[in-house]
Design a protein that fits this description.
Structural class: alpha+beta
Order of helices and strands: HHHEEEEHEEEEEEEEEEEE
Strand content: 15-25%
Number of domains: 2
Strand order of the largest sheet: 12-6-7-14-15
Length: about 350
């Protein structure tokens, strides 16, 4: 730096180092300078002191250093908050008012209230469809059994064996209290045709509710067998003259108020339970009348008929078991339970 503030044109006005500027060289021949091939950023030029501007070139090192600084700033989280001049932007932040939040919450609540019944209805429809599929497969398995046994039906119950009851669907232990009894489905008439599937279980049977009473260690069978097809000897399929109007299986259950369960009497606290056959219980005024149709699908019962089709049946008017009315246990139409 020379006296009186005169700046040497061969020196960088920022760092004082040599700027290697060809235009300022004392050589007779002046070639093209490196500074003529680049664009000097305005922000870098603004760093040159006022009294040194337009008197000397900035050196190459200061240009590179400035470019690196700008690159670092652009990659930093704060870069998005700066404008083109490198200054921080001012941002306007908008917030919801309390009234707006309450309106949004109210709209969500209304939509939820509209959707929940639809979702619940969809779930019930899916359960009903699964039950229909179960009964259709049970009907096919029964027809295969008839084909293999000269058209003979099977009995509802075979009797007592191995300290337990042998039913049409399998064996249930009789030595332990109900709710704790082991069972064996492999002894059932249809086991070989069902291949161990769970078509015996209706998804709508509310076995997890407090007023449902298990017979075994789990739900054993959700459906009842038409007792009119049983007998000694059992009926033959050729004797079923109206197969489209004669039931084989249907949703079934019974209200139990005459036993104890888990050490508690059910006399004043009746419970619903599985029931494994269907018969006529039409003396509705009698305290000993126990209907066994279970209208668990929106007060309808699924029924599979002897021709293999599945239909829905309403409860016979006046047959609702009043001991547990919310379970919708009542009587199926007598016409579908007797042979014509």
């Amino acid at each position: 730096m020379t006296p009186l503030g005169f700046h040497n044109p061969n020196q960088c006005p920022l760092c004082g180092g040599a700027n290697a500027c060809q235009l300022c060289s004392p050589a007779a021949y002046k070639g093209s300078c490196w500074c003529a091939r680049i664009e000097m950023p305005d922000a870098l030029l603004a760093r040159v002191p006022e009294n040194f501007r337009n008197r000397a070139c900035i050196c190459h090192d200061c240009v590179v250093k400035f470019q690196r600084e700008r690159l670092t700033i652009q990659n930093s989280p704060a870069a998005s908050k700066r404008n083109e001049d490198g200054k921080f932007k001012t941002q306007n932040h908008f917030a919801f008012t309390l009234i707006e939040l309450l309106v949004v919450i109210a709209i969500i609540a209304i939509l939820a209230a509209m959707l929940l019944p639809v979702l619940a209805k969809g779930k019930l429809s899916a359960q009903r469809a699964a039950c229909e599929s179960n009964l259709r497969q049970l009907g096919i398995a029964t027809q295969l059994y008839w084909d293999d046994n000269a058209g003979n039906c099977f009995q509802t119950s075979i009797g007592i064996t191995n300290n337990g009851q042998l039913w049409w669907f399998g064996w249930i232990d009789g030595t332990k209290p109900e709710g704790q009894r082991p069972f064996d489905l492999s002894t059932g008439f249809l086991f070989r045709y069902l291949d161990g599937s769970d078509v015996r279980l209706c998804p709508s049977l509310a076995s997890a509710t407090a007023n449902f009473k298990l017979k075994g260690t789990n739900v054993i069978f959700s459906y009842g067998y038409n007792n009119s097809l049983s007998g000694q000897p059992p009926m033959n399929a050729n004797q079923i003259h109206h197969p489209t109007e004669t039931a084989i299986y249907a949703d079934s259950a019974q209200v139990n108020n005459f036993q104890t369960y888990n050490g508690q009497s059910l006399k004043n606290n009746p419970m619903a339970e599985e029931f494994y056959f269907l018969d006529l219980e039409t003396n509705y005024a009698s305290p000993h009348n126990y209907p066994n149709g279970h209208f668990r699908h929106s007060q309808r019962a699924n029924v599979v008929f002897c021709d293999g089709h599945v239909g829905m049946e309403k409860m016979l008017p006046g047959s609702l078991d009043q001991r547990l009315p919310n379970q919708f246990i009542g009587q199926l139409r007598p016409e579908i339970l007797v042979l014509h």
